[in-house]
Write a structure and sequence with these properties.
With 249 residues, this protein is of the alpha/beta class. Helices cover 43% and strands 17% of the residues. The protein binds nicotinamide-adenine-dinucleotide (NAD).
C-alpha cells in the first residue's frame, strides 16, 4: 500500500469543498460481481454487440436474457464490500457530496450511501417495453426466458438498465454533469475509462480545475492525462484506509 499516495489523497479530501466519487464495475469486484473487461470478465463470454445492445435484446430476447440471468444470480448473492462502506462513511462524515455510479447493482445504496446517481440504471428492477410498468427483478430471476409483462400478449420486459444504443436517463445525465462541472475533487474508483459518455465526466471535472484521485487496479486513460494522485490496488483495501486517515483528524 502506497502510504504517501494515501496521505496525499486524504489531505485533498479533507480540504475539498465539494468532492464527488465516480465508480465503475471495479468497486464491486470484491463483492463477487465480475467486471466486464478483465480476463474472465462477462464480455469474454457475452460479447457486448450480441448481448448488451437494445437491438439485440429486442430481436433475440431469450438469448440475451442468459447474461441477465447469470448477472441476476451474482447480484442476489452480492453484499456491499468495505470499499462501498468507506464511500458511505466519507459521505456521512461530510467529505463526499455524492456517488455517481456506472454500476447497476444497488450496492452503494445498500452500503448506506444517500446520494447515488445511477448513470446506467439499476438491474434489480425490470421495466416493460410496452407499458412502462416496473417491478422487482426477483419475481423473474429464476426463469431462463426473458420476462413478459401481463399488459399485452408477448410484451417484453427488460432490466431497468441502459443498454448500448439507449439514452442515459436524462435526470441522471444532468445531475452527474452538474456535479462534474462543480466539484473541486473527483475520486474515480474501479472504472476503465472506456464507456462514454460517463467516461467523459472526469475530463469535464478536470477542465474546471478539479483535483483527480484515481483508485484502480491498473493504469487507465485517466492516469497519465488527468490523475493527480493514483491509488493503485484494490478498492476494498484502499478506500477503508483512505477513509480512516480522512476521519482521523
Ligand atoms: P470495466 O469492467 O470496464 O473496468 C473495471 C475497472 O476496475 C478496470 O479498470 C479494473 O482494472 C478495475 N478493477 C477491477 N477490480 C478492482 C478492484 N478490486 N479495485 C479497484 N479497481 C478494480 O468497468 P466499467 O468501467 O465500470 O464499465 C463497464 C460497464 O459495465 C459500466 O457501464 C458498468 O455499468 C457495467 N457493469 C456494472 C457492474 C456492476 O453493476 N457491478 C458489473 C460489470 C459491469
Amino acid at each position: 500500500m502506497n502510504t504517501k499516495a494515501l496521505n496525499d489523497a486524504a489531505k485533498i479530501l479533507r480540504d475539498a469543498k465539494r468532492a464527488v466519487a465516480l465508480t465503475g464495475a471495479g468497486v464491486s469486484v470484491e463483492s463477487g460481481i465480475p467486471d466486464f473487461r478483465s480476463p474472465g470478465g462477462l464480455w469474454t463470454r457475452y460479447p457486448p454487440d450480441e448481448y448488451a445492445t437494445i437491438d439485440a435484446y429486442r430481436s433475440n430476447p431469450d438469448k440475451v436474457w442468459a447474461l441477465w440471468h447469470e448477472l441476476g444470480r451474482d447480484l442476489r448473492e452480492a453484499t456491499p464490500n468495505p470499499g462501498h462502506v468507506a464511500l458511505a462513511q466519507l459521505e456521512a462524515a461530510g467529505r463526499l457530496a455524492a456517488v455517481i455510479t456506472q454500476n447497476i447493482d444497488n450496492l452503494h445504496q445498500r452500503a448506506g450511501s444517500q446520494r447515488v446517481i445511477e448513470y446506467h440504471g439499476n438491474a434489480t428492477e425490470l421495466v416493460c417495453l410496452n407499458c412502462g410498468r416496473s417491478e422487482p427483478l426477483n419475481a423473474h430471476a429464476a426463469g431462463d426466458r426473458a420476462p413478459r409483462c401481463s399488459c399485452a400478449p408477448g410484451a417484453l420486459m427488460k432490466p431497468a438498465i441502459v443498454f448500448f444504443g439507449e439514452m442515459i436517463p436524462p435526470r441522471a445525465a444532468q445531475e452527474a454533469g452538474e456535479l462534474a462541472r462543480t466539484c473541486d475533487v473527483m475520486l474515480i474508483v474501479g472504472t476503465s475509462a472506456s464507456v462514454y459518455p460517463c467516461a467523459g465526466l472526469p475530463f469535464a471535472a478536470k477542465e474546471n480545475r478539479a483535483t483527480i484521485i484515481e483508485c484502480n487496479l491498473e493504469a487507465t486513460d485517466y492516469t497519465d492525462r488527468i490523475t493527480d494522485v493514483f491509488l493503485q490496488g484494490r478498492a476494498g483495501e484502499l478506500l477503508p484506509a483512505l477513509c480512516n486517515i480522512v476521519k482521523s483528524d
